[in-house]
Design a protein that fits this description.
The complex is a heterodimer of chains A (343) and B (290).
Chain A lengths: L1 H26 L4 H4 L9 H4 L2 H7 L6 H13 L5 E2 L4 E2 H36 L4 H15 L2 H15 L10 H9 L9 H7 L3 H38 L2 H8 L4 H38 L5 H10 L3 H29 L1 H5 L1
Antiparallel strand pairs in A: 1-2
Chain B lengths: L1 H7 L1 H18 L1 H4 L33 E2 L3 E2 H37 L1 H15 L3 H12 L3 H27 L3 H8 L4 H23 L1 H13 L11 H8 L14 H29 L6
Antiparallel strand pairs in B: 1-2
Helix pairs in contact in B: 2-4, 2-12, 4-5, 4-7, 4-9, 4-10, 4-12, 5-7, 6-7, 7-9, 7-10, 8-9, 10-11, 10-12, 11-12
Classes of the chains: A mainly alpha (343), B mainly alpha (290).
C-alpha cells in the first residue's frame, strides 16, 4: 500500500511539469505583446512604459527555454499575471471564485452519485424488462441533453414561469448582508457560512439558487453512472458467489445490496476520476447559463474577451487540481480494491 | 447478425430512424430550405429578415420564427444539420486516424518509446476536455475550423489508448510471429496483420462519439467561441436564445421558439447516436450475455 502511494507521488511532479509545459506551449502561440499581460502585476505598469519596454523587461524576446524557466519561477511564487477582464491578479480572482465552484460541485456530487447508482441498480435488477427500458430511456435522454439546452429550459420554466429558482448565487438582499453586515466568511461557501453565522434565511436563499444548476449537472451524469453500474452489476450477477448466496436462501434484497452491488462498485470508483473531469468542464457551462459567479463563469468570460492571462491561469489551476484529485481517487481506489495494491 | 439485433431493439430502431431523418435533411437541405439569390455564394449564411434584435414568432413564411437578429430559425436548423455532420465526421475521422497511428505504433514498438508516448497521453487526458478546447479556440481564434482543430487535439488520446491495449494483446499471437518469421517488414505486419484484427472496436467507439463531439462543438459556439455569427450552427442558434428565455413581463414564454427548436434539433441528433450506441454496447458486451 505504502509503495503504491509512494510510486504515485513520485509520478506526480512529472505530470505537473507536463501540465505546465502544455500550457506554456499553448502560450507560445501568442505574440510577445499579447503575452505581456501575463507578466505584469497591475495596470499601473502600463502607464509609463511602452509595450516594447515591457517585452524587454520580462524577457519575452528571449528564447523559449529561458522564458519557460522565468515563467516557472513566477509560477512557484504564485504569480499568474494580471487579468484584464476580472480587473485583478489572476491568482486572486481564482481564489475568490473557487469556493463558489466547490460549493456547486459538492452539492451536485451527492445526487449524481446516489441517483446514478440507484438507477443503475433498478435497471440491472429488471434487466430487459419494462422498468429497465424506462430508466435507460430516462438516462439516455439525459445523456443526449446538452447542459446548456437543459439549463436554459430549466431557467425558462423554473424562473421565467414559476419564479422559484432564480439565477446567480444569492438574492440582492442576501448579497448585501453577506458583503456589508457583520457576516463572517469562514469558508466562502454560502450555505456553510450562513449556518455558521446563524442565518437560516440566507442558507435557504443560497440553496434556492443552487437547485437548478445542480439538477442540470446531475441529470447528465446519471446516465453515465447508470450505464456503468448497470453493466457491472449484470456482470457480477452471473458470478458463482452470487448463485451461492441465492442458494443458501438469502432474500433478493440482501443478495442485491450486499453481494452484488458492493462488488459492482469497483468500476464505478474507477470512473469517478473522469467524472470529476467532466463535472469541472460542465461547471463552465452551467455557471454561464445560470450566471453563477464561480471559476467556470470566470473562465468563460475570460475566453469571450480573449483574456489570455486569465484563460491560461485558470487552465493551469484546473490541471493542477485534477492531477491532485486523480491522485486522491487512485489512493482511495487502492483502499477499496485490495487487488490494485498488489499489482 | 448485429444489424438484425439492432433492428429488433425498439430503442435502437428509433435511433436509426432519427439518424436517417437527419441524413436526409442534410442531403436535401437546398430543397427543404432554398437559399435566396443574394446569399447564393454562401448557402451556410442564415438569411435575416428585417432589422432590430427582437425575435418574431412563427408565421407562414418562417415556420419556426425568427431568432435574435431576425435570423430565420428553420433555415438555420436545416443547414445546421450539415454543419453538425461536417464537424462530427471530420473530427471523428482525423482524431481516430491520429490515435490509431500513434497508439498502434507505440504498442508495437513497445519499451521506452511506449512509456514516453503514454505519459504524453496522460498529460493530455488530465485536462477537462471542454476547458482545453476553450483554451485552444481562444488562442487560435474564432471559427469552425479552429473548433475542429481543438477537438482533434484533445480527442485522439482516447483512441490511442484503446488501440494500444488491443495491439498489445495480439502482438504476441502466433500469426504475428509467423509473419515475422516469414520476413515480413514491420510496417507491413502492423498494417496488414495487426490492424485489421484490432481496429474494429476503435471504429465502433469512434462512431459512438459523434454525438458528444457535436455537443462539444455546439457548446463552444454557445460560449461564443465557435462558428462566426450568422453561420448555420445549432449551438449559436441557442446562444441567440439566451437573452430571451425569460420572455416579456406579461408572457414569460413569449420567445419559447428561440430555444425550443434549435434545442430539439441538437437533442434529437445526439439522442439518435446514443440510442444506437447504447444498444450496440449491449450487443457487443460479452460479459452480460449470461
Amino acid at each position: 500500500m505504502i509503495t503504491y502511494i509512494a510510486r504515485r507521488l513520485l509520478f506526480l511532479p512529472i505530470v505537473l511539469i507536463g501540465v505546465t509545459l502544455l500550457v506554456f506551449v499553448a502560450m507560445s502561440f501568442l505574440s510577445p505583446y499579447q503575452l505581456v499581460s501575463a507578466y505584469i502585476k497591475s495596470p499601473e505598469e502600463l502607464k509609463n512604459q511602452s509595450l516594447d519596454d515591457l517585452v524587454r523587461k520580462y524577457g519575452l524576446d528571449q528564447p523559449i527555454h529561458v522564458r519557460y524557466v522565468s515563467w516557472m519561477k513566477n509560477l512557484l511564487k504564485g504569480d499568474l499575471g494580471y487579468s484584464v477582464s476580472a480587473n485583478m491578479p489572476v491568482a486572486e480572482a481564482v481564489t475568490k471564485r473557487f469556493p463558489a465552484t466547490i460549493e456547486l460541485a459538492l452539492f451536485a456530487s451527492v445526487p449524481v452519485v446516489l441517483g446514478g447508482i440507484w438507477l443503475g441498480t433498478i435497471s440491472a435488477k429488471h434487466y430487459n424488462r419494462p422498468l429497465d427500458h424506462v430508466t435507460r430511456t430516462f438516462a439516455i435522454i439525459g445523456w443526449s441533453l446538452p447542459d446548456f439546452v437543459f439549463g436554459l429550459i430549466l431557467l425558462m420554466i423554473f424562473y421565467g414561469v414559476l419564479g422559484w429558482f432564480p439565477p446567480g448565487r444569492l438574492s440582492m438582499w442576501a448579497d448585501t448582508v453577506v458583503l456589508t453586515g457583520n457576516f463572517t466568511r469562514y469558508t466562502g461557501l454560502n450555505t456553510v457560512d450562513s449556518l455558521l453565522n446563524g442565518r437560516p434565511d440566507i442558507f435557504w436563499d443560497s440553496v434556492r439558487h443552487l437547485i437548478a444548476p445542480v439538477i442540470t449537472l446531475s441529470y447528465l451524469w446519471w446516465a453515465y453512472l447508470l450505464r456503468i453500474t448497470r453493466s457491472s452489476m449484470l456482470e457480477v450477477m452471473n458470478k458463482d458467489y452470487v448463485r451461492t448466496a441465492r442458494a443458501k436462501g438469502l432474500t433478493e434484497k440482501v443478495v442485491v445490496n450486499r453481494h452484488v452491488r458492493r462488488n459492482a462498485m469497483i468500476p464505478v470508483a474507477t470512473v469517478s476520476g473522469s467524472m470529476i473531469l467532466g463535472l469541472l468542464g460542465g461547471v463552465v457551462i452551467v455557471e454561464t447559463v445560470f450566471d453563477y459567479k464561480g471559476l467556470g463563469l470566470l473562465t468563460a468570460t475570460g475566453a469571450q474577451q480573449l483574456d489570455y492571462t486569465l484563460i491560461l491561469g485558470t487552465t493551469l489551476f484546473y490541471g493542477m487540481l485534477l492531477v491532485l484529485i486523480n491522485l486522491v481517487v487512485d489512493v482511495l481506489y487502492a483502499v477499496i480494491d485490495p487487488r490494485v495494491r498488489l499489482e | 447478425m448485429v444489424m438484425k439485433k439492432l433492428l429488433r431493439n425498439p430503442l435502437s430502431m428509433v435511433g436509426l430512424l432519427l439518424l436517417l431523418g437527419f441524413i436526409l435533411v442534410a442531403i436535401f437541405a437546398p430543397w427543404i430550405a432554398p437559399t435566396q439569390e443574394i446569399y447564393a455564394n454562401d448557402p451556410y449564411r442564415v438569411p435575416r429578415f428585417g432589422w432590430g434584435t427582437t425575435p418574431e414568432p412563427p408565421s407562414p413564411q418562417h415556420p419556426m420564427g425568427l431568432t435574435q437578429g431576425k435570423y430565420d430559425i428553420f433555415y438555420g436548423i436545416v443547414w445546421g444539420t450539415r454543419t453538425a455532420f461536417q464537424v462530427g465526421l471530420i473530427v471523428t475521422g482525423l482524431s481516430c486516424f491520429i490515435g490509431v497511428v500513434i497508439g498502434s505504433t507505440s504498442a508495437y514498438v513497445g519499451g521506452k518509446f511506449d512509456e514516453v508516448i503514454m505519459r504524453f497521453v496522460d498529460v493530455f487526458m488530465s485536462f477537462p476536455f471542454l476547458i482545453a478546447a476553450i483554451v485552444i479556440t481562444a488562442i487560435l481564434g474564432r471559427g469552425l475550423d479552429k473548433v475542429i482543430i481543438a477537438l482533434v487535439i484533445f480527442r485522439w488520446t482516447g483512441y490511442a489508448r484503446l488501440i494500444r491495449g488491443n495491439v498489445l494483446q495480439v502482438k504476441q499471437d502466433e500469426y504475428v510471429m509467423a509473419a515475422r518469421a516469414g520476413g515480413v517488414s514491420h510496417p507491413k505486419i502492423l498494417l496488414r496483420h495487426i490492424l485489421p484484427n484490432t481496429i474494429f472496436p476503435v471504429l465502433i467507439q469512434a462512431s459512438m462519439n459523434m454525438g458528444s463531439i457535436v455537443v462539444t462543438a455546439s457548446t463552444l459556439s454557445f460560449l461564443g467561441l465557435g462558428a462566426p455569427e450568422g453561420h448555420a450552427d445549432w449551438g449559436q442558434m441557442i446562444s441567440f436564445a439566451r437573452n430571451w428565455v425569460l420572455g416579456t413581463p406579461d408572457n414569460s414564454l413569449a420567445y419559447w421558439y428561440t430555444v425550443v427548436w434549435p434545442g430539439l434539433a441538437i437533442v434529437l441528433f445526439v439522442l439518435s447516436w446514443n440510442l444506437i450506441g447504447d444498444a450496440f454496447r449491449d450487443i457487443m458486451d460479452p460479459r452480460i450475455q449470461g
